[in-house]
Structure prediction request, 224 residues.
Amino acid sequence: MTRAALFDVDGTLVDTNHLHVTAWWEAFRQAGHRVRMPAIHRSIGMGSTDLIEHLLGTDRDRDQDADITAAHTTLYGTYFERLPALDRAGDLLRALAGEGWRVVLATSASGAELAALRKAIDADDVIAATASSDDVSSGKPHPEPVEHAMELAEATAANTVFVGDSVWDMRAARRAGVTPVALLSGGIPRADLEEAGAAEVHSDPAALLAALPGSAFARVTDGR
Prediction:
């Protein structure tokens, strides 16, 4: 029986959400839009196109989308050499792999950004695969990223746990039929994560690592 431990990356394993907020805020400002940072923060976890539509609406000038996305990519790229992993993120992945879980990353990042994130986590030896934005046609909260990651792990939904930090992660996991576990390390309130479907909530990777014996991972292992 293959058991899959799927992980979002930004805000879940690497402390980058507020860097994304700043980069998106400046990208919108350069395009002539005033978007409040709390609204951007709550949109982090969506793919770029969905994030822009969520914040600017369907009646926006879509011709700006590519320039806004490119500006965000350029601005965020200035942080690539100093992205900070969250406490014990790599240890969490190694602990799960040591217990027989197949670890797969499911993220909207790709290319150089994904490489920088993996370097920060420093656990490539136990990451079996990565489902990036290049591999799917729809981002979270659509279930496709989670479903693709599950396929890469060769696991069923009943034997899969997805860990993320946003409401979009939780909704995508629920729609894919897997067990959603939430972390507060991305800055989203516990109540919002629970309302979006989180089966349980932990402070950060270190807290989840400490709680593994009694967590959703243990319940899936035991068939509960």
The chain has two domains: 3-15+84-222, 17-78.
